[in-house]
Design a protein that fits this description.
Elements lengths: L11 E6 L4 E8 L3 E9 L1 H5 L6 H23 L8 E7 L3 H18 L3 E5 H7 L11 E6 L4 E6 L6 E5 L5 H11 L7 H10 L21 H16 L6 H26 L4 E5 L6 H14 L3 E2 L3 H4 L3 H15 L25
Parallel strand pairs: 1-4, 4-5, 6-9, 9-10
Antiparallel strand pairs: 1-2, 2-3, 6-7, 7-8
Bound molecules: 5'-O-[(R)-(carboxyoxy)(hydroxy)phosphoryl]adenosine (KG4) and zinc ion.
């Protein structure tokens, strides 16, 4: 297949994101100018089950995807013929959910005669920062979402090296499990965050640093410690100090995330530290990161909440990088729930 490389004009990309429980379509110019970013959340549907039900997620994506594409084009005031390419989240994510987006994107690319750009979901979370400010390399990213907790070094545009990752639960997953133990509905992260800031005192909980020098994380021990505190109170016939536990949990998580991110940024001479993923909406994390980066003289970028949780504008921002370096993907592209971020790194220098 001939390689379809981007022309010098800013690319106008329609991007589709369906990796989990948000159906989102965006139209973005030049990877930074968001003309539309429609997000249809399924949270209300999944709440009744206490978490995302994969089968239900796929079905919901099928129900709304066509309407969301139409809305995104209408809000952007863009006609399909004006688009440069169609981008889609290829992975990682729930396979059935990813499939809906990939099939829709392929259909549109074929019908509109446009190139297709397969995009990595975490590259999207990282490049959400591009929607706020131009990135300078090398930069360090702390990715904190429901499925991922990683420290990723970008030595140059589109190149990803994971220097630390969680060995068990992702941080968002730990938030959701702790929230459930404290009696809050899915997704629990925002509830724990709010409660933590209302508490007068923190219940002391451990910090998990792992071996000296390691950039990896572990949250399952902390989660078990929370469950122990809750169970011990119940056994004594007492109501658990829900707010104090939330604050103790949040302080432990935030301290470890922030200290490792700051150390990683300094050790790699990062020109910027970027925060990415759904947990980046956490107010406690933002506050401590802002303070510590100011103390250490590190330039910090945090996207607004709408670009932190799953959305298609971030997918377009990453797809634009891929397009300028590597061009479009063949139409036999498949949804890949285990897609590797490092292997998705761009191959060729941009024009
Ligand atoms: O990035 P995201 O939208 O989806 C994934 O790709 O995983 O992240 C969703 C996660 C959920 O676990 C949710 O509880 C968590 O982000 N989250 C928060 C907050 N807002 C969302 N966690 C802690 N504090 C918050 N304010
Ligand atoms: Zn995500």
């Amino acid at each position: 297949m001939t390689k379809l490389t981007g022309a010098a004009a800013p690319a106008l990309i329609l991007a589709i994101e369906t990796s989990c429980d948000e159906t989102s379509v965006a139209v973005v110019k030049g990877g930074t100018e968001v003309l539309s970013n429609i997000v249809s959340s399924q949270i209300e549907t999944h709440r009744a089950f206490g978490g995302v039900v994969p089968e239900v997620a796929s079905r919901k994506h099928v129900e709304v995807i066509t309407r969301i594409v139409e809305e995104a084009l209408a809000e952007a005031k863009v006609k399909p013929a004006e688009l440069t390419a169609v981008a889609v989240t290829q992975g990682p994510g729930l396979v059935g959910a990813l499939l809906v987006g990939v099939v829709a994107a392929k259909g549109l690319a074929l019908a509109w005669d446009k190139p297709l750009i397969g995009t990595h979901h975490i590259a999207g979370h990282i490049y959400a920062n591009r929607l706020v400010e131009e990135l300078q390399y090398p930069c360090m990213t702390l990715v904190v979402s429901g499925g991922h907790t990683e420290l990723v070094l970008l030595e140059r545009e589109g190149s990803f090296r994971i220097i630390g990752r969680t060995r068990d639960d992702a941080v968002g997953e730990a938030y959701d499990k702790v929230a459930r133990a404290l009696g809050f509905p899915y997704p629990g992260g925002p509830h724990v965050d709010k409660l933590a800031r209302e508490a007068e005192e923190a219940v002391p909980l451990p910090r998990v640093w792992l071996e000296p020098g390691s950039y990896d994380f572990s949250f399952s021990g902390l989660k078990s410690a929370v469950l122990n505190v809750v169970n011990q109170s119940k056994m004594k016939g007492l109501e658990p100090d829900v707010a104090g536990i939330a604050r103790g949990f949040q302080e432990s998580v935030v301290e470890v995330l922030v200290e490792k991110a700051v150390r990683a940024a300094k050790a790699n001479d990062a020109r910027q530290l970027l925060l990415s993923g759904g947990v980046a909406a956490n107010k406690g994390l933002r506050e401590v990161l802002i303070r510590r980066c100011a103390e250490e003289g590190i330039k910090l970028i945090i996207p607004p909440p709408v670009y932190c949780t799953d959305n298609a504008a971030m997918i377009a921002a990453a797809a634009d990088v891929k397009w300028r370096h590597d061009g479009g993907a063949p139409l036999d592209l498949v949804a890949d729930p285990g897609l590797s971020l490092e292997n998705w790194s761009v191959r060729e220098p941009a024009y």
